[in-house]
Design brief:
Elements: E1 5-12, H1 19-32, E2 36-43, H2 50-60, E3 64-69, H3 75-85, E4 90-93, H4 105-113, E5 118-122, H5 130-147, E6 159-162, H6 179-185, E7 190-194, H7 210-227, H8 232-256, H9 261-275, H10 277-293, E8 304-309
Parallel strand pairs: 1-2, 1-4, 2-3, 5-7
Antiparallel strand pairs: 3-8, 4-6, 5-6
Length: 325
Amino acid sequence: MEPRLISIVVPVYNEEGSLDALLREIHDAADSRQWHIQVIFVDDGSTDASWAKIKALGAADTAVGGVRFQTNAGKAAALMAGFTEARGDVVFMMDADLQDPPSEMPRMLETLDAGYDLVSGWKKVRHDPWHKVYPSRVFNKLIGLLTGVHLHDHVCGLKCFRRPVLRQLRLYGEFHRFIGVLAAAGGFRVTEIPTLHRPRTIGIGKYGFARFAKGFLDLLTIVCLTRYRWRPQHLIGVVGAWMIAASLVLCGLFWALPGAFLHRIILGLMALMIAVFPGLLLIAIGLVGQLVVEQRPLDDQYVIAERVGWCSAAAEHEPAVSVRA
């Protein structure tokens, strides 16, 4: 039987120091199971020598292809570009920082073959600073609460899935954190397994506190797109109903306060206008804006400046395979 083709998509942003070791570990994992592989490095506008390293790897290894963005477009855009190039029946995604070891790939594929469509890694023992670990745990619980998809580690960069799952994924902004949610919304079977996590020894982390505020807003958008895409009034109308109810309650409270009638009315209206209406209006406008963005072609997110390896001519869209002596 012909060995299966496995595609491995690796977003890269200023990771020149880790790429040689990462490719060696990918080959070690693939060779242990006699996989044919294609590795797609997507350089997301790096400012170091990452692209020069990818070009060298692509020249030396027929399994390696790469594309370079003209400017930094974000991890979601890099993943979508890589998925577009992928030809395997099974697709892995992994970060380039070596914290999620490629040696976990065979075990994840065994879980996938047990009857799932997407398997996500779970950094059960996580070697990251506390200010990344604890907010991430809260965020993961919030995702489960609002979407009904309960994973310990939605944002883990190590995942594998069957090719049909790609049709369900429209990633932009920070939506790469919600791949499991998007797959589950499409009716695919999603699970996770504990995976090893290593301390970062090369490069620096790219994330800070600001990403959690962005993540919460993206989570609201994901809930809108997955649960209410075809019935937005069920979301907007319920919010409107609660606004009316809150207004009535506040009006009653202010009516009961001592003081002049006019003062009570003015205070009530000012409280509503300052504390409630602007925020709700901005969120509503944001959701409508996201629905508009949802209709845009995803390749508008990035401009590919250069290709290398089997991606250089899109390889005539023929699958590349690993060839090693």
